[in-house]
Design brief:
Order of helices and strands of chain A: EHHEEEHEHEH
CATH class of chain A: Alpha Beta
Number of strands of chain A: 6
Largest sheet of chain A: 5 strands, mixed
CATH superfamily of chain A: Gcn5-related N-acetyltransferase (GNAT)
Strand content of chain A: 35-45%
CATH architecture of chain A: 3-Layer(aba) Sandwich
Strand order of the largest sheet of chain A: 1-2-3-4-5
Shape of chain A: globular
CATH topology of chain A: Aminopeptidase
Oligomer: homodimer
């Protein structure tokens, strides 16, 4: 029995469980500085730019999706960027990711967004199968570019 | 003489010039529904999620950068997503993109962001050269995934 609901005050500690799982699979190491209080602050401030959904299997926390408001220049309107979908290891292959994505779509429609987008690594064939089954369009050949920390400070000089 | 400044009320019409140029190079066609009033509304509302920079060459509008607030789960803090950097055709190869990116970096630092990220197509070797020169890290092998319009409504059912 899978249930998905929007984040509530106090969920920061649960979101840290999926964030840590994500961090260990991505090898973030010391760059993983998020705290439960960060999520509490940013989810429940006056004009939040992020939202989160939590999934439970038979009442046990099993996974989460974190999204943020984004913007389509072509349409002059907001859309949704899906930052992470994480399922805890012991709850894989039960349909949790699909249940989260379905609720992501509902949340997007409820906000009046006409589009959700996200990134995936080209080698991730399991994710690709799921996303295509759910109707997503997938465009290969993108690069993720970033300027951070010292390189960002240097350019800003 | 290149000058870059933050968007001001009334700049929507200039931003439409770069948005149209972007739309024609991306083949957006009918999907390109943005209006100057959309940018005016979204740049100057109470808690905007977007920002824009405008570049001028000897006083003539030459290009723009549009960014929005984004979020790093790993850090539990906001960062900047750079949505578009556009230089009008007649002002290319003058250093306008570099001047815009430098101001993007300054803007990010002023907001307290430690990272800016954006997407690039793998085949875009001119952009890659510029980004690497400016200190960016570039990761190949990403896919851009999206659910939009009818496919989004179908999944939300």
């Amino acid at each position: 029995m899978i249930e998905v609901r929007a984040a509530q005050a106090g969920d920061g500690a649960l979101l840290m469980l999926t964030t840590k799982e994500l961090g260990s699979s991505h090898g973030w190491g010391a760059d993983m500085t998020a705290q439960a209080s960060d999520f509490e602050r940013d989810l429940f401030c006056d004009a939040p730019i992020i939202g989160a959904l939590l999934a439970f299997v038979d009442g046990a926390f099993a996974g989460s999706a974190l999204w943020h408001r984004s913007y389509a220049t072509s349409r002059g309107q907001e859309l949704m960027y899906l930052e992470d979908v994480v399922v805890l290891k012991e709850f894989r292959r039960l349909g949790v990711a699909e249940a989260l994505l379905k609720q992501v779509a509902k949340t997007a429609v409820n906000h009046g967004y006409r589009k959700v987008f996200w990134l995936m690594m080209e080698w991730n064939s399991n994710a690709r199968r799921l996303y295509e089954k759910l109707g997503a369009e997938i465009e290969n050949g993108n690069c993720y570019c970033s300027l951070h920390d010292q390189a960002l400070l240097d350019l800003a000089k």
